[in-house]
Amino acid sequence: MKLLRVGTAGAERPALLDEDGTTLRDLSALVTDIDGALLADETALDRIRSAAASGELPVLDGDGVRIGPPLGRIGKIVCIGLNYHDHAAETGAEIPSEPIIFFKAPDTVVGPEDTVLVPRGSTKTDWEVELAVVVGRTARYLDSAEEGFAHVGGYAISHDVSEREFQIERGGTWDKGKNCETFNPLGPWLVTADEVPDPQALSLRLRVNGELQQNGTTADQIFGVGELVRYVSQFMTLYPGDVINTGTPAGVALGKPEPKPYLRAGDVVELEIEGLGAQRQELKDA
């Protein structure tokens, strides 16, 4: 299923995208939100599937409606750095022996077409298209990648916007360059795990002002989805509704020759992942 949330920021309502790929169905009579509690409730998910198959869900007028983040009440966002072979190569970094972990605050999340703000004083705001894994079952001390994969509730597109000076040149951890407001557009949909049988076979693309910058595949990930969930569960408990941003392929501004084409107000970024939809953001100054 393709689950989403529509409406003004803070007042989104749960919806479903029909199999035709264009019709929105209102889920308000069945569930209060698209969140971790829903993903962990197989009975509620089956109820949505049955209602969708019967055609009884009311149609929502999608003309001009804002699409919000597809997940409400996000617990934590665990991010994985340098998780593609080609991205590590373009930045001159060694292939990590274990996943590199950092965090984004849930309040960085905005909708897939919401404005992204270039932080005050920024000269190195960068783009990163990423596969987001949404946890569907509580995970702690998992024993295998197969177990990790079984704890996934769904997938979405994540835009891990980054400010490279704040991240790399200002000392301390990466978090300063990752947690600026609006730095994690998510969506448009949360696609349930049963519709993504192989998350290691998805193409990812990102364009800036119409020019293709990233063109990769999740097959190039150093640590796959199941292994990432297993690994992270050794250090923290993952709960339904937690998100793992799984890294970005080559093509970021940081890895390009000088002068590096960092983002500025007025730029338009478009990104897509096979089967998970597309995003579009215009940048403005904070």
Overview of the molecule:
The protein is α+β, with helices and mostly antiparallel strands and 286 residues long. It folds into two domains: 2-60, no CATH class; 77-285, Fumarylacetoacetase-like, C-terminal domain (Fumarylacetoacetate hydrolase, domain 2, Alpha-Beta Complex). It has six helices and 19 strands. The protein has helices at 36-39, 42-54, 85-90, 145-150, 164-169, 225-232; strands at residues 2-6, 13-17, 24-26, 59-60, 77-81, 100-104, 109-110, 116-118, 125-126, 129-135, 152-159, 162-163, 184-185, 190-192, 203-208, 211-217, 243-245, 268-273, 277-285. The strands form four sheets. Strands 4-3-2-1-14-11-10-17-5-6 form a ten-stranded mixed sheet. The protein has a five-stranded mixed sheet with strand order 8-19-18-15-16, with no helix packed on it. The protein has a two-stranded parallel ribbon with strand order 7-13. β15 (203-208) and β16 (211-217) form a beta hairpin. The protein starts with a strand and ends with a strand.
Please count the beta strands (DSSP E, at least 2 residues each).
19
Helix content: 10-25%
The name of the CATH architecture of the largest domain is: Alpha-Beta Complex
CATH homologous group name of the largest domain: Fumarylacetoacetase-like, C-terminal domain
CATH topology of the largest domain: Fumarylacetoacetate hydrolase, domain 2
Order of helices and strands: EEEHHEEHEEEEEHEEHEEEEHEEE
Count of alpha and pi helical runs: 6
Identify the overall geometry.
globular
- Largest sheet, if any? 10 strands, mixed
Structural class comes to alpha+beta
